[in-house]
Records
---
Amino acid sequence: MTRYLFDNTGVQTENRFHSLEACYDPFSRRQLARTGLAPGWRCLEVGGGGGSLGDWLGEQVGPGGEVTITDLDPRWTIRHRPPHVRVLRHDIVSEPLPTDGYDLVHARLVLLHIPERLAVLDRLVAALRPGGALVLEEFDCTWQPVLAAPDGGSAALYERVQAALLAQLEKRGADCLWGRKVFAAMADAGLTDLAATTYAESWTGGGTGVGLHHANARQVAEGLREEGVTEDELARYHALLADPEFTVNSLPLISVTGRRPSGER
Ligand SMILES: C[S@@+](CC[C@H](N)C(=O)[O-])C[C@H]1O[C@@H](n2cnc3c(N)ncnc32)[C@H](O)[C@@H]1O
């Protein structure tokens, strides 16, 4: 049974994936391109969500390559694809991968949610060919400074609701600080040539980025009430996210690339 808090059955999922893809795909594509990604590569996109990065990988590797997009619940990836890009309903924690020897394995904002993340990391490393690249991209959920607010109480309200959201995530086994631990975890897993780049931007009320916060808070509204957030606070939080006088730092995405040593068999 999944413990993933924002499961993909929620009607808010489409908006969540839209915000994630619009805000972070250009950055993620740059990180993936830096691995040497080329026609003919075999790639694994784990927890592919809306599938946009898996589709982009498919364009880069061309018909001579192969991309497998997995997800616990891939309902948001259902659309026509070329035959070399396939979608698999798959639990990365409990089900064996159909194959290994990948040139590139990528997962964005997946291991953060999985309590067994270190065991999953070992499986992802084992799925690489010697010399293959792993790219993990994760949030540090704790660094979200408010950059501008319409009044004195708004920053405190934002921080209160976000803290409740993070508390709900942690109760489901998420590690909200995972982003800052990924580099060391990948080194411990035996990867070399490690490099990290972090991306953040400002998100203004009413914009695409804060759509992520709208979607998340709406999907877990009941859990937020359990954390003591009142109906009135929740209503004011959503109004704040719609206010162009409010600007907050985006969640910082820490992208780490490493390679399986070439000498390994
Ligand atoms: C926050 S979303 C990120 C989606 C996408 N990677 C992105 O960054 O746009 C997390 C995704 O991981 C998937 N997921 C969660 N647990 C998983 C598991 N055990 N195995 C495979 N996918 C999982 C969820 O279904 C969801 O689609």
Note: The chain has one domain: 13-259.
---
Amino acid sequence: MPKRLISMLLLTFMCSGILFSQVRFDTSFESGSLDKVKVVDSVKFRISPNDSTALLSYEVLSRFDPKNPVDTSLAPSARWYYFRMTGTKGNTLYLNIRNSEAIRPFYSYDGIHFQRFTQEENPRRGLIIKRFNRDTVYVSHYIPYTFSRHISKLNEWKKLPFVTGEEIGRSSQGQPIDMITVTDSSVPDSFKRKIWIHGRSHPSEQPASWHLESMIDLIVSENPDAVEMRKKCIFYIVPFINPDGVTGGYSRSTSTGVNIEVNWDRPDSLTMPEVKALKAKMEQLTSDRPFDLLLNMHSQIANSVTYWIHTAKSTSESFLRRQILLSALTMGERKLYKPENQSFSDVGSRYAEGWIWNKFKDTTLAITFETPYTFYANNPGGEWVSPENLAELAKDSFYAVYDYLQIDGENRIILEPASLSGRRWNTVAYNKLVYFGDNAAKSDNSRAKAKFSKQFLKKGEYSLYIWNAGPNSESFPEDVNKWTKAGTVSQKRDGKFTWRARASHFNGIVDAIMLVKKQ
Ligand SMILES: [Zn+2]
């Protein structure tokens, strides 16, 4: 070998050696995950006479989950990465992160406060270019929501008088799977609506946990509507169904490689302990009557919020209508979630929803909800996903559940017509529109009147909203299937409430109205 080549090789080798001693990559902390790091290149760059930086270029490979032993056809995911670099101070790093889809991931100097890389720092998928001014940097696909945080929130919730905690089972590695039950125990359970919520079957889906945490915080809060919900509902909530996957930094599986989201139709020998624990608890809780609602909380790579709405052909027209009612209610002011973001699929028995469908058919509305990781409503010019706007979305989720179940609270009341005057009304063809209750009424005669009443309403000022029933179809205009503010009503004293309106007030189709007390 020519001498010159040997010395060049030696130089390259020495450079690499120096690089590794300069920046060290590791994942020896909770939820840490990374496969390999390869040095690509390095060069010393002088910015000014007193300032120079080393430009260090690395190829970073995120780690694939183990091969799924139950569904060998499922390709393992490597979406999640979370690593620490030390020795970064003053260096400019080029990281080319492979195997994952994240755009504008996050970094932190302390492992607690995270911020997104800017557009300039992350000019295209996977590529990060940044000069760091601290010696330690954490980089992650999304702000980690760890098992430790879950346990500390759980302990906080369990201290509340209307929350009880219970371990419903253990993971493969023996970690607890915890459930909280939230209800006002001074009210008998027999008339309460039953709501089951679980989350985090997929460990990489951190935004789902931030969303669910905010939703639980609201359910257990002193918000008057939450107080009413606890009187009229029992919530069974399992926030972390895959503790091993989350602590081990996996993407979509448990530590054994099994995607427990699609493990619900397997024989016992191939059913994971996490799914067995959930099934056993659900069996026990539904032995008297089914759940009214089941929410399965996820995050998706698509840049929009969605529900996975089960098609009418795999369920029924009325089930589709009720799913779209819940979905439309969750859209709130149509800021973070819009009608065109809805997703549809056939109900499948390998999922929790399919397992519930096979047992209870349409008596339980069981559905998966997805939050994005990056931005909302396919609009990069809008808000980027953060714990703060996930908390706003959680508020929309909370009120969607409240309204969907037509909780008869003191401050937020949904009424269907008590009577329709004259013979000028027709019933809307069943399930053609998205309405509350059993039907909606239609009249072409603008003088036809509808009367709404309630035996007891507290005195005060109320905002009055009209449900603007739109089509029961895969998409619909933004201004329908929505509460529309129609005015204010003043209830002079505690007692009977009556309100009459002409058909023309409702554009000819009358369904529900809602009163929201002004505070
Ligand atoms: Zn998921």
Note: The longest strand covers residues 36-48.
---
Amino acid sequence: MRNVIIFGTNRGIGLALVKEYLSKGDKVWALCRSASEELKNTEAKIIEGVEVTDFKKIQKLAQELKDLRFDVFIHNAGIWTDEEIMGASEKDFQDMSRAFEVNSIAPLKTVSAFLPLLAKGAKIGLMSSQMGSIDDNSSGGRYAYRMSKAALNAAGKSLAIDLPEFVVATLHPGYVRTDMTKGNGFIETGESAAGLYQVLENLDSIGAGKLWNYRGEIIPY
Ligand SMILES: NC(=O)c1ccc[n+]([C@@H]2O[C@H](COP(=O)([O-])OP(=O)(O)OC[C@H]3O[C@@H](n4cnc5c(N)ncnc54)[C@H](OP(=O)(O)O)[C@@H]3O)[C@@H](O)[C@H]2O)c1
């Protein structure tokens, strides 16, 4: 039985990932700000009060769990922002900064704090997005979301180089029906989580530092 830790598990894809790993017989630590009833109804070890931008809290948590070793580490928590650049307001730019805090910097905080708790060869999955691919951008807009996920992709690449003892990759879950997409999308959370599980299972040092979609295809940066 492996130990799996997932940040951002209250709902959506994070919750589906918790269920996916549990269904494979893994032991899952589900971290969230506040647990939903659906999460509480799983067998996961739930830890609430985890705001991923709060480095002190993340470090304290890592200290509390220091005797554990995790085989799989997933940072799933992320936020969506959508803004018009023409006539953007001060508030729009504050929201953009928040997108970077949550989508780009927080995953580095959680990885950094939990490095001593990762088993040799552990898989590290950082939930990014195809929208962070500059190469794939054919529709414009969504500045902060695209920029913050592109920054996360850059971080994933550096982490893969700097941490050869682990296997690090950024992930695209597909266009998934969740709160973030207001229920729009091509697939349900379960299909996304099943695909992401397999991607991380198959991931090796050759595939590290790349952006993978849930179907096991590499998306160009
Ligand atoms: N859905 C898609 O089509 C899609 C496509 C590409 C990428 N993604 C990425 O996949 C991930 C999950 O998306 P989703 O669709 O499942 O979104 P979601 O339904 O909006 O869920 C987002 C999750 O992130 C958590 N979260 C957000 N900010 C947080 C913070 N500051 N501290 C702790 N937890 C925080 C939320 O917790 P609370 O409940 O406490 O807010 C929630 O559990 C995100 O990184 C997203 O960018 C999604």
Note: Residues 90-114 form the longest helix (25 residues).
---
Amino acid sequence: MNGKIVVIGGGIAGVQAAASLADKWEVSLVLGEDYLPYYRMRIEEIISGSSPESLYMHPAVWYEEKGIKLYRSPASSIDRENHSVALEDGTKLQYDKLIIATGSSAVVFPLEGERSKAVFSLRTADDAIAIKNALSDSSTMAVIGGGLLGLELACSVAEHFHIPVSVIESSEYILPRQLDRASSMLLQGSLKKRGVEVHAAVSAVRADCHTLYLSDGTAVPADVLCFSVGVRPAVSLAASAFLEVGKGILVDDHLRSSDPDIYAIGDAAEMDGRLFGLALHAREMGSKAAAIINGDDSPYVPSDSSAILKVGGIDVVSLGQMTDDAAVVFDSDSSRFTVFCENGIVKGAVMINSKQLMASARKAIGSPFDAAMFKEKR
Ligand SMILES: Cc1cc2nc3c(=O)[nH]c(=O)nc-3n(C[C@H](O)[C@H](O)[C@H](O)COP(=O)(O)OP(=O)(O)OC[C@H]3O[C@@H](n4cnc5c(N)ncnc54)[C@H](O)[C@@H]3O)c2cc1C
């Protein structure tokens, strides 16, 4: 064995790093939650009845077989001088290399009004259990934030609990980074048919026990209220060890923090002013940090993060870049395919229920626009 590696955080990034290092290093994986590592992207399934255990990435025996030692107590401090990590239960772990993969936490902001109960966010398995319990005797829900996660949550609750769900979005329309306005409006109409009412271009200002009040004066029923307005990287452990932090833990293109023996990966890391926030990058960074520790000298280059989603059963794909020059190749009550160009060259595409055109659209990016390329696949 080459030496000791401690990985703090058992999310996708941490588990990927630990698994990739276990054959050459003595690896300790420090867990911050009461569960074995699970697929965070699937925690909505807990709201609709699954157990946290059903989302586990691997059974306990998998870690044993790999030689990864699990510690079920959060890390409380890092002693850089002595190369050690202290856990809340008093355990001390020595390291030669340390990987911080502490993820992020949901942003929640205070609202005016008297509401003190039934305000949630969805980030952990325990959050999902709390939302599920609250929904069991509630008849309405409001979600603040119409991003991907908020919409997924709203659709899933509307479908499984058969209650009306409102989504509050401060932008002019939902998913402004992924969709053009017309595609977004089509999606919004489809969501309404599924029991999800979107209130766009407004913000939540006040809440009482059963109602949320919006900036335009609308009162929205909200027995259960859930924030879905983004995440904040978990940097406190790194900051208290005097590692450089910005919004996330600052790393170079080799995922190294300001201490050359400490790496930061996944949602917790900030590279070139960029935060990641996607499972795809968390997994990539886990593998790449392991490769770098094992001697790979090439930098981490994040993959393209095209959005390929399913929102309430509706396929949504957003590739490349949106521009002002939009060519609508087809448009119906339930599907739409738009190509975006610059000087006649295809730069991106947005697809609502037209995923079958994804390969053609990828191929078209960088070439002159020609609607015939997409015709036979409608
Ligand atoms: C409901 C939901 C749906 C999502 N859907 C998608 C999706 O469809 N596609 C996508 O790409 N991404 C999605 N994401 C985002 C994706 O889950 C994250 O980008 C990914 O989980 C980041 O992985 P990570 O390992 O960096 O951090 P995390 O998954 O947040 O894991 C970090 C872990 O570190 C632990 N930790 C923190 N502090 C300590 C400490 N001091 N000691 C020990 N442990 C600690 C935390 O408890 C946590 O378990 C979704 C997220 C949510 C919440």
Note: The two ends are 56 Å apart (CA to CA).
